[in-house]
Amino acid sequence: MPGTPAADPGARGLIPLPPALARALATGGGAVTAVSAFLAWTWTSAFPGDLTVYGYPGGLQWLVLIAGALTTLLGLSSYGVKGLRWLTPAGADSALRFAALAGFATAWYTVLAISGKLGGLVNLEIGGWIAALATLVALAGALALPFVHPDPEPVDPEDSALDQLRQKGHNQLAVVKAAFVTGTVRPAPKLSSYLEILIIVAALAIGLTVFTYGIGTEYDELFIGFLLTAGLGFAAVAKAGLISRVATITARHRNVTLGGAFAAAAAFPFTQSDDQYATIGVYILIFATVALGLNIVVGLAGLLDLGYVAFLGVGAYAAAMVSGSPSSPFDIHLPFWGAILVGAAASMVFGVLIGAPTLRLRGDYLAIVTLGFGEIFRIAVNNMDGTSGPDITNGSNGISSIPNLKIFGFDFGAEHTILGFTIGRFANYFFLMLLITLIVVVVFRRSGDSRIGRAWIAIREDETAALAMGINGFRVKLIAFALGAALAGLAGTVQAHVTYTVTPEQYQFAHVVPPNSAFLLAAVVLGGMGTISGPLVGAALLYLIPAKLQFLGDYQLLAFGLALVLLMRFRPEGLIPNRRRQLEFHEADPAPSVALGKTGA
């Protein structure tokens, strides 16, 4: 089969079946799964989504249809079908396992949900039974495919390819190319610039569609099904190497990608008929912007800050005090530009004041000090009520009745009509926050590519070696701390006007509702430290998932924590990893990739 690495005669799948039969079962099962979505799964519309219609999927059936189609495509690609090989540069077998698992998990969850809600399996129609059986067959076939690990060089098979190159004395460039040497990732064929831009547009459109669908899920069963399909589907696409291939293309057109991403984000409010979803969108942008600022401190400079949410609070309180709130002790009403400068400057000053005496510490000691600062800030603003301390922040009641912003006569609190679409209050703030996010992204990108950005990376990788090379470690770390704090204050300024009120409880270390320091750090690590898109994706997930899992009640954090543990176990470099960190993780511990079938047909 063209492009298929030679299989080890001793290689076996988890289920003892001939490879040809296993591949046929996986591909055929995926096709039947897709067809089953057009059949009725239950006889009554009492189950959400109305799964009683023949010929048109509804609710969870759409997710099963997508998983089945993805399984079929990957199965055909594993046969070497012309045109589909481009989708699987890292091989199709490993991706096929995850795609089949996505279909199986979503279909069986739907079947069990129907049985639980309606009172037994007797409520299933023929479509539900076919979907359950087809996904089981597809998963069995995918798991029966042998785990193939190509090894083109006659060296010790117990060593990873990266270790083999290192033992032979190859330089870092050769180590970086190890994935291509082993056939794990095949070099992408050269495409025209116009075709690459079309691929970027398609990727952004898919991303917008997935996000819009997820944020608009109307009932709990649909959101859980969405998580199963989206999570395992992303794993399948990543295992196929398509994510890396698209990332390579976007790296060649960074400005086009950046502009397209923000154009897609700007289109989001126009896809929603309810301002409720724009509310979630603006809070996600606030969370993402703060996470991106923290990424400068943690991802680039390598400083563990556990009290970062305090800088968000400093910016919010500073802006609230000068924005004309009747609860403010100062009779000042600055325009937005003045308030945003006050918020960013106040956070930067606090960043310098906290960083100057503490940044000579390293590791856990610095983390403890920043955690203390976060708690000191919360307790201090809680006590500044005129009784326990000076009357500045109105204590636990906070500063309320913060007026809506007005910029050049544009009232952000009123509805406006744009291109025939009615844009509500939260959509107005969404566009403003999107502009601020763009500014933060540009600052992060330019800083990371600058001389000071390279100094941050040197400090992160090995501070002792960086100091020996003449880098002023204290100065560059203080700049990172101050810049990260200023960006958090920038977001805090908008947050104060969006929420109308700022209170001490909003800025705790850990809280069920983000943003807080624990969730901000998790967003950076989950998304991918040192990248631009990583914290944005991580923040979106960490805000959206808890907001949609409120029906779990006390078990919400348990489920959320379990998901983080699994993700960090199988993808410790993050969802969108920095290439250097991805290489380091695979050098240090290739076991997770091997366990899930890193390479294959």
Strand order of the largest sheet: 1-2
**Shape label:** globular
Number of H/I helices: 24
Mean pLDDT: 82
Report the oligomer: single chain
Give the ordered list of helices and strands.
Answer: HHHHHHHHHHHHHHHEEEEHHHHHHHHH
The biggest sheet, with number of strands, parallel, antiparallel or mixed sense and barrel status, is: 2 strands, antiparallel
Model regions low in confidence, pLDDT < 50 over at least 5 residues: 1-10, 149-186, 589-601
- Record field, number of beta strands: 4
Strand content: under 5%
Give the helix proportion (percent range). Answer: 55-70%
Radius of gyration: 26 Å
- The secondary structure category is mainly alpha
The separation of the N and C termini measures: 9 Å
Write a brief structural summary:
The protein is an all-alpha fold and 601 residues long. It has helices at 19-36, 60-78, 93-118, 126-144, 161-167, 172-176, 178-181, 193-215, 220-239, 242-252, 254-266, 275-300, 309-321, 336-358, 363-383, 425-449, 451-461, 463-468, 473-499, 517-527, 533-548, 556-570, 579-588, 591-595; strands at 406-407, 410-411, 416-418, 421-423.
